[in-house]
Amino acid sequence: MVCNMETDLIEDMDIEGLPSMWPEDIGSDKQFNVERPGGGQDMLEEVTIPEDQTIVDFKRLLELTNYTDKGSSQMAYLVKHWEYRQSNAVRLLREELDNLSRQRQESELKKLEILEEHRFEEEGYGGDKRPISIMDELSDMWKDVCPRKNDVVFQSKRVEVDAEYDTVEYWKQRALDLEKMLEASGQREQALMEKLNESVTNLEKQSSPVEELSQILKRADNFLHFVLQNAPVVMGHQDKELRYRFIYNHFPSLHEEDILGKTDVEIFSGAGVKESQDFKREVLEKGLPAKREITFETELFGSKTFLIYVEPVFSKSGETIGVNYMGMDVTDQVRKREKMAKLREEIAVQKAKETELNKTIHITEETMRAKQMLATMSHEIRSPLTGVVSMAEILSNTKLDREQRQLLGVMISSGDLVLQLINDILDLSKVESGVMKLEAAKFRPREVVKHVLQTAAASLQKILMLEGDIADDVPIEVIGDVLRIRQILTNLISNAIKFTPEGKVGIKLYVVPEPPFAKEGLKQKSKAYQSATDAVKEEKHQPKSQTASDQNGFHDKKHGEGYQDHKHDDDPGTPVSHGNSMDEDLEATVWIRCDVYDTGIGIPENALPTLFRKYMQVSADHARKYGGTGLGLAICKQLVELMGGRLTVTSKVHCGSTFTFILPYQVSPIEENSDDPDDLSDMADQDSVTDDVTAGFFQFQPRTLGSLFSSNGTSRSKKLLPNSIGFASAHKVNGFSETSYSFPSNNRQKETAPLEDACSVAEVAETLSEPESSFSHSPEPENETEVSRGKQCHVETTSWFQNPATESTSHSEANREMIQTSKTNEPQKICEMQEKPDRISQSPSSSSAEVPETKPKPKPKILLVEDNKINVMVAKSMMKQLGHSIDVVNNGVEAVHAVQCQNYDLILMDVCMPVMDGLKATRLIRSFEDTGNWDAAAEAGIEQAMPSSGSSNHFKRIPIIAMTANALSESAEECFANGMDSFVSKPVTFQKLKECLEQYFP
Amino acid sequence: MADKVALNRQLLDTITSMEVEGLVDSRFRMVYSLKEANGPFFFAELIPTFCSDAQTTIREMTLALEQPVVNYHEMEELCMKIKGGTSCIGAHQIALACGDLRHAIDDRSKERCTVAVDAIRHEFLKLHSKMDIVLQLERMIISHN
User: Fold this and answer.
1) Which residues of A fall within a CB distance of 8 Å from B92?
2) How many contacts (CB atoms, under 8 Å) link A and B?
3) pTM of the model
4) A892 and A993: one domain?
5) Which A residues in the span 819-858 are in contact with B, Cβ-Cβ below 8 Å?
6) Which domain of life is it from (chain B) (predicted)?
7) A538 CA: distance to closest CA in chain B (Å)
8) Which CATH number do you get for residue A473?
9) Which residue ranges of chain A lie beneath pLDDT 50?
10) CATH number for position A313
11) What ipTM does this complex have?
């Protein structure tokens, strides 16, 4: 029983005590932070680790451990650790020993107890009165706690003793049992002793320090291998000379012996090697660890990028003895990174493009809006202004006294000035917003120069010599936007005159070789002209008779001038030889340089850069003294550049300025008997082509101070010469003797006025005191038109009224007469002139402006196509006032019908109409003119009302004038594109209507 | 004769006052002056024509705007019609209001169209009363002839 109990106890101890007091592995987990036992170990075992990958120079390693700080500290740590473990083991052993000895004592105690018990029993057996009285309770207690178990055991044991108590048998049996128990106890003791011995031997076996260390190392090694087996990592140690002493490389491409003892440079060659070597050296020198990314490009492993970490290794004394080196292959990452960067860059570029695009869209929208605004502006501003002017116009139709007429003149010319200003601003904004379109028309540069100078001379109030000098090689006719060129010239000339107190102002024209900026300019220009070229031809569509008379008029004037300034013009008759040669190269481009020079106040150098800017003037003083808005030059420059040229200026203070612009022109052949002279050359003289067309020098000179004087403040004659105030005489250059400018001329105003009224209201003021014939005031209307609408027709106007008087058969005679008068400069001319206004003045005063009485010319048949009743009424009455009666239809279909039934000389066509608009109707009519049949109209669903009254071969082109509410040239183009000849913007004014009609019915 | 001169002056004064008020611009006077060349009845005929024309157009515009789906094309034509007439005769304020209407039509805004047409009607009514005076004077002048 006891024996069982003892065994149990010991077994308990075995199980409980040993594991708890015997840590499996001390320190290993602390060192590597790894759960060593169990799975971990197994895992490592599963992995086969080839050991030959570590290449170790053991000698060096020993050295390292001996001499380096790190090595020694590592060693010290290991030793300490080992000592600790050792002491721990000793302690445990001691504990174990204690334990064992205690057990032993216990067992001995038990043994004693047992023995004692038996003795007691024997004693008790001997004498029951054992003196335990005091201890009774104690023994009781003991009995309570401990022996209970025993009781049970003993009782059962006792049961085994069959013999009767206190018999010999019993005692014998008892002795036997005890003996057995003793034996078992001894056996147990033996076993324990054995176990102890075993433990001791075990302990001895485990506690070898080298074994322990190497095991730890091996575990560490295994762990490192496990971790690093697939890592793209290279580790190494290099000595002071950067020779490899140790290297770990999982993917070795070189053998150990190839690497150890060598430097990078000796091993590899290629890009990056030197850099890494230098980097390591740097670290070595600085003594501070560093990281760097280095891209290698070697034969050995191609292009790879490594992130390299290098740290210096110090000896115990603190000097660097080498570097530890660790490299990681980051090629993929770098590639990805670069790709990312590239992508990011692309995205950024795309974004920038997008913003750019958005900006462009925005700008385009802005431009559209600007266009829209321009259209509105041009209409909204011009309409009321035209209202003012036409008001004045009407007023001038009424009976007025002299003073009123003068005031009216001021009013009209001021209105024109405002109109001009608005046009300037509109021009500028048109050019800037890209709306401005250039027209290409044939014109004669000589004429243009001459007219510009004449115009300038006409309003001249200073003693200035105006001269024009055109080189012989300048073609007679060129193609360009004559209106704009005139605008530029007029602007420059008026500037020159404004700033020139005395001396001369002039224009020089000569051909220059193609300038360097030509190419781009040409491109631009051709683009700008493109849209307009089609329209040009149609514009030139003019009746022949008109031309002839105009030419005559011009011819006369030419002569008049020639004789006015007898000093010059001495060689007007010499034809220029190259005129013919020009015929041959039809489409050649010629670059003509134009110098506008003066002897004025000049421009200070510091003002030159800002000269062409908007609203810029040389100085505030100048602005006060000379007036002006500062827009002129800006417009000139923009226009010149739009046409593909350059505008430059040279100037010297107090000596004068020269504005130079070079423009490309197309050269057109000269038609000997031109049927369609362009709108400027229609003044040119065909009869005396040889004189006029090639004349290269003009000079305009104020004859006398008196005649310079302007009667009142017209728009272009603001400053009067002080000494001439008080004279109300003609301010024009004319051929009158000094006496003619005084009173008689004023008397003639009345007679002249009606003529002037009928021609052009704008010129009234300036012609008030001007008694002479139409040709001498022709520059005036030229100026007016140029400035306001760019339409020339005043000259024609003049001839319109002039014509009836001097009909084709007689006009040559009349011309001669006039030549005579201007030549001789005699009062006879005055009479002649006086006579003429008299004749003409009758016409406008009557309700019909036409003068059919004096001339059997049939009235032109005019058709008005307009749907708005009010417009019809007003237009009709306006036409009536102008001396025309008209037929009216209400839409395009009716217009086609009307044309089918009758021949018209002119059609005024509204563009926007119900049923059929004006554009379509025009197309149908044009198609009829081209083909001679109404098939196109039939296709459009219009039945032919009646056979055309015209003869079958009479398909003459009917001039069609569009009436549009849109003032922009855009809609004009649309009109031209549909076959219309010109257009009038609504609301139609007298002036516009008249200009238009005069163009077609001179 | 003196009567006629007085009437003429009265008429011109009325026109001037209309101009000052901004109801009409210079074109109106110009149109008036056309009668000199076109017979005495020209102006007396023109004004009623204009008024009835404008009235009809305004009515049509109002009707068009009352439709559930506004026919902007029709509106545009009507707008152009009334603008053509008014700017021709020089009814400045109406022409301006027509400009607004045009913008509203371009923007396809029924609401603004309604406002603009109201403005046109308002301006027309203002003008109409003046026109009546002018017309009466003109008729008196004619009867004096």
Assistant:
1) 384
2) 84
3) 0.32
4) yes
5) 847
6) Eukaryota
7) 28
8) 3.30.565.10
9) 1-20, 22-23, 26-42, 44, 52, 123-159, 521-528, 530-586, 671-691, 703-856, 948-953, 967, 969
10) 3.30.450.20
11) 0.79
